[in-house]
Every structure is written in C-alpha cells, then in structure tokens.
C-alpha cells in the first residue's frame, strides 16, 4: 500500500480509503468490460427501449438515441475515471479536493442515498422475479400466503434469498466482484442473444416493431430526442460521479478506456436491438408487446425457459446492484465513519439500510419513487461538472495525496468547506431540476444533466479563480503543500 508522507487524519483515512498501488490492481480491460456488460444488461435498460418507442420513435431512431446517450456517457465516464486510475483513489476521497474534507460529505451523502435506494428497489424487483418463477415451477410456493408488513410470506422468502445472494458476493470482497462480473456479463449477453434468435425465428425477420414508422418530426423530434438522451443518461448519472471506485482497481488508462468503450456504447448498441427483436416476437406470439422479461417468461409457461431466463434475470440484477449500488455505497459509508467501518461491515450495513427502505411499499407509488430518484440523479450532474473542472483545469491532473487525508491542508477551503464547489453545485443543481417543477422551464428538464454539469463546470472555475473565500487567506501562516503524484 502507498505510504503517505504525512500522518493522515483518522477521521479521513483507513485502509479501504487509501490509494491502491499498481501492484495491487488486478483488473485489465476485459474485467472492466465485463463489469459494464453486467450493468448494462438489466431489466431497466431492457425496458428503456419500450419507453423510447412509446414516445413515438421508430426502432432505428431508438438506436440513434441510445448511441448518442452512451457516447456522451462514455466520454464522461472515461474522463472522470482518469483520476481514479492515476491515484488509486475512490470517489469519496477525490471529491475532497474540490468540496473540502467537510463539504465533500454533501455529494457523498447524496450519492450514497441514491445508491442504497436504487439497490433496494432493484433487489426487490429481482425478488419479484424469483417469486413469480418459484410459483411457476413449484405451485406449492404460493400457499405461503400469510401477509406480514404488507408482503406475503412467499414474497419474504424470495426477498431473503435475493438479499442473501447479495451478501454472499459482497462477503468475498472486491476481488470476488471482478471474478463474478467476468462470468455474469458474458452470460447475460449470451442469454439475450438466445432470446433475440428466438425472436428472429418466430418473426421470420426483425419483426413488426422495426416496421413501425416514426411519429415525431421537426421540433417535436428534436425536443423528444434530447429528452430521450437525458433520460437514458439519468439512469447512469450517479455512476458517472463515482466511476473512480472502479477505475482505481484498473491497471492503466488504456485498460479503463478500452474496457469502458466495449462495456458501455458497444454493449448498449448490441443489447437494445436484442430487446426490440425479442419484444417484436411477443407481438406475433401473444398479440401485444411484452417488454418486461419476467412477464415474458411467465407468458411462455415453459419450465426450462423459466428457470434459465429467471436465473439470468437474477444474475443481471446482482451484476448491476453489486457494482453500481452496493460498492459505491460502501465507500460512502466508510468515508463517514472510517474509524468504525471497513468494506465488509459497510456492505452489511447497506443491506440493512436497503431493507429499511421497505421497497415493497414504495412500489405502490412507483411514479413518486422514480421522480425522486430522477431529481437526485439530476443533482449529481453538477457534481460531475465540478469534479471534471477541478481535476483537469484547476488542478491540472496533479493532486497532493497527503492533503486529501488531513485538515488545514491544501484542500481545507473555509473550515473544511470548498465554497466555490458548493456554490457551483447549488446553482447548477437548481437549474438542473427547476424544469421538473416549472412548466415554462421544461426544456431545462429535458437537458437536466447537460445543464447541471455544464453550469457547475463553468461556475466552479469562475468562483475558484475570482478570489472566493479560502481559509488560507484567513490563515496566512499555513504553508502551501506542493502537489504530488504520490508513489504509485
């Protein structure tokens, strides 16, 4: 492990937050690509094609929206991953250079809340799949019909199984996540390809959905296109912030770029047509489109297909939940209490907190849940903008490792608060979400991620260069510490 030149503050440091040295970074481009494959292949992304077509796009235009969204995501992810790969640091530590050691808790808490909530919702969705599948292959399962806290006993059993699977994977540590994704990512795409081949066979071609024309033209098309791109990016806005949590374990910048290119835009452009072709087949077989893969398995009523498909859905959910939600939430919790929490303890705490959200009750108000999560995701665009501006422009890709783990150092700001970052975040976040509440500003809502990221990027540089309040101006005797790359 990298030795820090100065004694770190125990409130800001433990072994899980320390820089990962190069000789302890096991992931190459293939590991990262399969991790992203596992995350891109999930029920939410599968159903996103339905949402786009419901807006009036043709199948080809859906692919264009997906291509633009994932191209922008790829650029944002790669840029924000650079610092993680260079220094081996997680998001919750890197963010201190802009927001300060105390102010950093604001975006960390926001990201942590979003991660645990998404984990809870997606894990419950997977438990519903398990519940439905068990009722198909074992009819006696549904006799466990006693209701407790708003859920049947067979629902509780399915939920317990899903929670236990998440705990089992997390109990084996970071390295096991890489090995799990190495299998899970390709397995999900193989099963998706099998479903697409079934669709091509049943439909004798690409199917009726590809034959549907576009219903959008002119400005209506442009506005809806922008909203579609923003909507897809909203699903990944939280991960654009904490991608260093993954890239810190990657051997080189080349590996992280190649891995993310294959895992993000390439995989998305392969997976989306699979979803459309498979759904086209349901129009022919059942007379209407079935976009939910669980509903499709139940409609097919084939035990073998149900078992294989159900297992794939569960694996896909585990893939996205472990890497995109539990792992970043663990680092966020460790950052709050580094003296009491390590990775394993925080993983169990995430499982408990996720259960405390009682997602089965929230599912009765699905519109409210996703409206809340979309607002939170919109607020994370400004965090991305601040991080990129701070690292690439203000710091010129040079960070002082010792100062990231101490108070009264280079990143102290005003009593631990990075005022420029906080102001840029508040203003950018306000503009990103105001369109959701003020109809006349609806255009801002359609471009919320871009507005929040762009405004915060610009304002942070303006505020940080305009003599904004800095504790160093109040404490002139505190020496400036030279930027260091560290012994990586």
Characterise the protein shown here.
By secondary structure, the protein is mostly helical. The protein has a single domain (24-373), classed as Hydantoin permease. The protein contains 20 helices and 2 strands. Strands 1-2 form a two-stranded antiparallel sheet. Strand 1 and strand 2 form a beta hairpin. The longest helix is centred in the middle third of the chain and has 34 residues, at 253-286.
Query: Count of helical segments?
Result: 20
CATH topology: Hydantoin permease
Oligomer status: single chain
Question: In percent, how helical is the residue content?
Answer: 55-70%
Strand composition percent: under 5%
N- and C-termini, Cα separation: 9 Å
